[in-house]
Amino acid sequence: MKIYNRKGFWSGIFFLLAAVAYIILLINDPHDINTVSNVKSIFFAILCVLFGVSQVYRGLDSKCTKEDEQNDDERRKLVTLKAESSAFKITFNIFLALTALLILAIGVTKYKGLMDLTIYNGLLGIFVGVAIVPSIMFIAIIGADIYHDRRT
């Protein structure tokens, strides 16, 4: 018998051993008479056995292994796509908030008459640097939208 998916096979063996150990511990503890605890323990052991048998079977069957690899590849692509999208949105929102705070800081320093040129020029320089990032990101969003709209 050939093992096609070693990771799945050994995780199944691990769950089967965990179920056996859990049942042995449940039998060897005569002082625990709590019914709810016993029902939970038995339910957990049954789940471990079912999951273990399923994983061992999928590790030994070539068709199931190919299906698992395909599903894992699709899942990995989806997770990567969602992570990149979330990172883009978070970065965009952080830089928008920083831009708004810098506009507020520049307005306060100019309004209060605190015209210390080094502070004012420093804030303007930081504002320009920070404001460029969401501008480029916004242009990238528009460009990607146009590109994907034409392709699909």
UniProtKB/TrEMBL annotation:
This protein's UniProt keywords: Membrane, Transmembrane, Transmembrane helix
Origin superkingdom: Bacteria
Positions of transmembrane segments: 9-27, 39-57, 90-111, 123-147
The protein, known as: Uncharacterized protein
Native source organism of the sequence: Desulfosporosinus meridiei (strain ATCC BAA-275 / DSM 13257 / KCTC 12902 / NCIMB 13706 / S10)
